[in-house]
Amino acid sequence: MSSCADEHDHSGHDHDGRRHDHSHDISDAQPNNLYDRVDRQNVVALNADTSEPKIIKPWHERMDETVSVESDADDQLIIRIPFTGSIKLRSVLLKTGPGEETPTKMDIYVNEDGLDFDDVADKQPAQSFDIPQSREVGDYAVKPSKFSDVRSLTLFFPAAQGADNVRIYYIGFLGEWREIKDRPAVIIYEAQANPADHPKIPGINDGEQSNLGM
User: One Pfam family of this protein, by short name (predicted)?
Assistant: First the structure.
């Protein structure tokens, strides 16, 4: 099997000192790639230069730098990603940069749908990663115990590595997907009618038959 053009033997570490691997052979047909499981129409970017972020791309478009999301007012960026089911996440794929537009780190929050910039100061992320400067796609392996039932992810990029803005070209995910089935409706049957629960129709007395419809 031939290796991907952007595979390199380099690695980084998250804030817990765990190593993450930047090399990964991923094809669009591989079931672990969750591109089709992202609710892409409802992806939201806060403090972004576009209201419709298009950086959740298929794997074969990962190196395309014609489409990106850049932070707007400053170098902070939040991206909310909902899924169409429950995800057992294995890793986040990320292409950033180049150079000083690379974020310093990525904080990941699980199932925090309404998270904004005021909230992230008080909430502990499920996991954080330092991001090296590179034009390649980084594979950031997460701790399985913290990402076993993911309905949505919020990615917070708190600062750039020297630039006024951060830039993201590609975000992808590896893991397992399962459908969330709706709970069955609970139907309560009335065992015996209680006259007190049923108001009388005006003009109909007790014991008389209704002539309506006759």
Answer: PITH
